[in-house]
Specification:
The protein is α+β, with helices and mostly antiparallel strands and 140 residues long. It has three helices and seven strands. The protein is 31% helix and 19% strand. A hairpin with a 3-residue loop joins strand 1 and strand 2 (25-29). Bound molecules: zinc ion (ZN).
Amino acid sequence: VVPCPFCELASGADEDLVALRTQDAFVVPVTHQRRLNRGHVLVLPARHVTRLADAEPALLAEVYSVAGRVSMAVRTAFGATGSTIFQNDESPDQVLMHLHVHVVPRRAGDGFTMPAAAKDELTRAERCEQAAALRRALAP
Ligand SMILES: [Zn+2]
């Protein structure tokens, strides 16, 4: 059995990548990002949940309220004017089967499309920098 990479992050495998932790959710930058939408992050439940329908209402409330906070913080952290928030549920676009909500920083003229025309793979260091920038923007 291949361990779930998001459960590993949830359990503290790489805290430098985690921009925020709440009681039952956490936030990490995605590995592949559109060039004009840097700062694309995921909001995830800390426990393994596959589908939206499997998440308790209280958990969804927490995940989406965190997504709301992050949607504001990406303005400060990444110079976004807004964001696009979405979630893929199973086939064909959910690849890692641990529920996650995408928050994509947006700005005018970024040419955002779904699916992405092209994405770049970020280094761990680049993702850690993004996590740190978001952490600062989320600080009270
Ligand atoms: Zn998992």
